[in-house]
Prior knowledge:
Layout: H1 2-7, H2 31-40, H3 59-69, H4 84-92
Helix pairs in contact: 3-4
Amino acid sequence: MLALCLTALLPAPxxxxxxxxxxxxxxAWYAGYVADLVSAGAVDGYPxxxxxxxxxxxxxxxxxLIVLAAGYxxxxxTGSHWASGYLDFASAKGxxxxxxxxxxxAP
Length: 107
């Protein structure tokens, strides 16, 4: 789902060089998009070395993607959740209401 959503935001990928994710085949239609996102620093996958292309995008992941896609820099966590810096940044910029950020792990 994540890969599908992101294809609308990106130009056609460069010829896929593959990815380092164990669950993204080099010949997958979205592999080039994933490689481009990794190269751009927009995504880095999960600690277990997966990308989880069939998984749901969480609120925290979506906010991180939006902040980085809008040209803003990486955000340092401001709390215990890894996405807290992105959530606080988005709220401060008026991208969303603070109340919508209460469940960063919700799909």
